[in-house]
Automatic annotation (TrEMBL):
Organism: Edaphobacter aggregans
Protein name per the record: Beta-xylanase
Cleavable signal peptide: none
Pfam families the record matches: CBM_4_9, Glyco_hydro_10
Reaction it catalyzes: Endohydrolysis of (1->4)-beta-D-xylosidic linkages in xylans
Keywords: Carbohydrate metabolism, Glycosidase, Hydrolase, Membrane, Polysaccharide degradation, Repeat, Signal, Transmembrane, Transmembrane helix, Xylan degradation
EC number: 3.2.1.8
Domain of life: Bacteria
Amino acid sequence: MFDSAIKYTLHSFRDRIVSLFCVISLVIVLFAGHIGAQTVATYGFEDGTPDGWSSFNGASTPVATNTAAHSGSFSLLTTTSSTGAGGPSILVSRVLLAGAKYTITGFVQLTPGETATNANFTMKRSDPSCSGGTCYDTIGTYQVPVSNSGWAQIGGSYTVSTTETGLQLYAQLVGPTTAQSFYLDDVVITETAPPPGGTPIATYTFADGGLDGWAPFGSVSLSNAAPPVLDPNGDQQALLTTNRTAGFMGPSLNLLSVPNVVAGATYQVSAYVLLAAPDNSSPTATISTKTTDCASSGAFGNIATSGPLSSTVWTKVQGTLSFSNLPGPPTGLTLYFQSSSATDSFYISDVVIGELSPPPPNPSQQDNTGITSTFEDGGLDGWSSRTGNSTVANSTAAAHSGTHSLLTTGRTANYDGPQINVSNKMYSGSRYNISAWVMLVRTDDSNHVINMSLQTTLDGNTSFPSITSYPGITVPADGNWHQISVIGYNMASSYDPGTAFLYLQTVPPSGADLVSFYVDDFQLSYVPPPTIQTNIPSIYKTLSEFFPVGAEIDTTDLSGPHAQLLTMHFDSIVSGNDMKWSSVEDTKGTYTYGNADSEVRLAVCNGMKIRGHNLVWATGAQTPAYATGDGTNSPANQAVVTANIQEHIQSEVQHFGSNVYVWDVVNELLDPSQPDCLAHGPFYNVLGKSYIDIALQAAREYAPAGTKLFINDYSTTDPNRLACLVQVVGDLRSRGIPLDGVGHEMHNAINYPSTEAMVKAIDTVAEKFSGIEQQITEMDMSVYNAGDATSNYGNDIPPSVLAEQGWLYAHYFEALRRLRGKLSAVTFWGFADDDTWLDGFPVARTDYPLPFDMGLQAKPAYWGIVDRTQLPGFGLRFSASTTEGERHTSTLTITATNGSVGPAYTTQISGIKLTQLFGPRCSPQITAPGSFPIVLGDIATSGTVSAAFSINIVGCHPDSIFLLSVPWRSAVYHTGTFETILDFKRNGK
């Protein structure tokens, strides 16, 4: 049935059916997941056959019958032996996996006339650990009452022995001493937990004398050979690798050719390794991978490294493996073994690939109903004590709403709090809104930190990811209710069935905080992924003739709708944090480029430019402490810090190579309060301004030819900072320090700086320095005024504010288009309002600074960038008419008529002026209906609003003609001047 040398245990209908021969109704659910239980077999007998079931212990041969059925039309009929023993049975050795956990259930009913008795499911297990080699395991309750008047469910949970060699499931009656007949129906076998090491996907024993699909990695020789020592599983053959001349060389396997190895799943890879000859240097073996895709011709990673190898004892090496289809499906995925010894020959044997966790299920296959706990029924709503030591009870002493809540008392540790099982309610890869109301039992009004976390277990490994930002939310013990709310939590943890728990705990600065507290109105709700608009213009394509347009990203933007939106509208990226010193080299000489590499791969696969940000941060922000040594300017420490800067820059720029076209080499180095205009941060305190020279010179030396080197700073629209920027650039250029460009951050507010100030900053640098490139590197626009740290729109920002922002963005990009040739790129700091640093700066509040909203939909800011004709109020126009009044007076009516796009918010007439064009000079007097500006308010789509002005034309010749000028504004930045000819003789017609 299977090749004896390579045994695949596959979760697929095809191989299960081969294994079970006659099992017609076997149902295998692919990738149902270890997050949710997986049905591996059902027997309903609906095809009129016994579905492979046979007689056990003297019972009659089972037959399918339509006389009775629990569901459908058929069931299985069996008569016990004359002594009441026996029943229907089926071999399940190929259905159940050693070490896995299952639930096995079925329904039994006696035939008419039979006396009520009991029944159960039992497993006959062949196992060397059993006395005599055979055990009989009851599944679930030993005696389940059964009768001829209704169906009774038998069965329960069952864990398969890891040493079993055969399994036979049977149903029996318990108690009869004479023959009795009964029906069996709807037998379901469900895997609830995989075996240790995961569900086997493939096992390689090399028992047939072949290579079993393994190939040389490098110029080595592979052969099937009998090792001098049998491996722990007694395998007599192994794969031998010889003729090695480099450490990386060894045997390899194309994982893309292994059935059921899929992206998004987590696998355990284990193997045994034996040296072919003694080596006193104690070499190790490493399981590694090589991945090729649209971004790389060879990305390498290590899964696990063994302990010292021996030529007399097999050494086990084991680790986990997962891969992604992002930024594009791999075109090659090679698993290979290498060794710290470049020349040792070695055997590998009993290589097992087991699935620990499947890919996350499609959202349509998830239980997205969420959890609501109000405790109003007097129960616990599924909550319990996390440790079993504390007391979790329903209480009527306090309630946020209604009359009940959950009270936790008697806590024995900080982590000892209430918990609820969220298995099959929270799925890896999905987002959730989570809220709970907490009231601490009042003590002294002191503050306590309440943390909401998860506990998840995958293959025996337990982790505790925090849901709230760590350490948690500060809650005073003041006798009041306080909400703990997390919006859009990204569930990133896979777990074994039933092993995901959400819990509340305290996190004191030190020691124990065992405060008692109430919980009420808990809500867990699924957040459906947004759908982006695909029928709107691309930002970068709209502006392609002027400059590239980029966005700051993090790893949450690499898949799903965020990635779709990013790649549709931007042709450049910059990593928000993952290329900064503390992110890539927090410990000297230890590099963690994983997140940044993922972001770079996305860009490469989509033909996007990549900005590098940043190599040295002048203020020392996001920089490890070792970078500046002991902080002194002693000659010894200056040498240390110089070497640190050079080493870090060399390592990082060479790692990313030509993929990064420009680096912010030194970030935020200006300080107008200092005589030399430089921030006197930790690098400056050690090296003075020479740290800038050292950084730029190192970047020039080690970065690929053609890489642009920038300094980057904020508020360059401020005259003092702009003057300092000019001074610093001039100094660097005068001394021959390599510098290619200047980055202007442009973190703007809705009222500051002006568009003119932005233009002046770029024009000034362009006029002062030829050959210096300029980019806007971190653009966003807060909806709050500069200096306002108290306002907060929350989730209810007025549409008028969004319209105002849109019109200001329109001014920005009209001006930036005119800077073509002086400005080489514009990069937004983010791209959608669901992820912006301004939500936490300068205070925690909701901000809306970017082109797309929290649902990834285009908002007025977007339309201001690409097409102002789609902004609210576009098409607003004015007209004027006059009517004669009493002697020497006229009434002038100014009418504003809105266009068809959207409301014209906060429309006003700023002033009014008459300029005489013809006739004897005179001075008409205009009386407004109030003081300027005359507020017309919000004008609905296609609506009109008018204002009447009184004009005294005493002394004016009837033939006099005037030019009427009416400046106006709407949405603050939508401005214009209406002009027309007035001839009072003709009533302005």
